[in-house]
Amino acid sequence: MLARINALAKKKKTEGLTPAEQEEQKKLYKIYLGEIRAQFSQTLDNVSVEDKDGNAVPFKEAYKKKEKP
Questions:
Q1: In whole angstroms, what is the distance from residue 42 CA to residue 35 CA?
Q2: Are 61 and 48 in contact (CB under 8 A)?
Q3: How buried is 38 (Cβ within 10 angstroms: 0-12 exposed, 13-18 middle, 19+ buried)?
Q4: What are the φ and ψ backbone dihedral angles of 50, each rounded to 5 degrees?
Q5: Is residue 59 a contact partner of residue 44, using CB atoms and an 8 Å limit?
Q6: CA-to-CA distance for 2 and 69, rounded, in angstroms?
Q7: C-alpha distances in angstroms, 59 versus 26, 39, 43, 47?
Q8: N or C: which terminus of the chain has fewer CB atoms within 10 Å of its end residue's CB?
Q9: Rounded to the nearest 5°, which phi and psi values hold at 65?
Q10: Is residue 6 exposed (0-12), middle (13-18) or buried (19+ Cβ within 10 Å)?
Q11: 18: exposed, middle or buried (Cβ count in 10 Å: 0-12, 13-18, 19+)
């Protein structure tokens, strides 16, 4: 998939893309970015931070957005 994304990007710079190729590029970017985001999220699941008391807290729990009352 990455090879095709790169090929389309190169073609876009040199000669331009057809409408079908533009659609393909958008779909591939969407899939690729989704995979990257999932991998990043999994990485964050394995990261912990130390709170003020010295306790290890999962990163996602430590930096959750606090809800406004």
A1: 11
A2: no
A3: exposed
A4: -95, 130
A5: yes
A6: 45
A7: 32, 15, 10, 6
A8: C
A9: -70, 130
A10: exposed
A11: exposed
Helix (H) or strand (E) holding 35: helix 19-45
Residue 64 scores a pLDDT above 80: no
Residue 63 confidence class, pLDDT cut points 50, 70, 90:
confident
Q: Per the confidence metrics, is the pTM higher than 0.85?
A: no
Structure tokens at 46: 């394995």
Listed in sequence order, the residues at least 6 apart from 59 whose beta carbon sits closer than 8 Å to its beta carbon are 44, 47, 48, 49
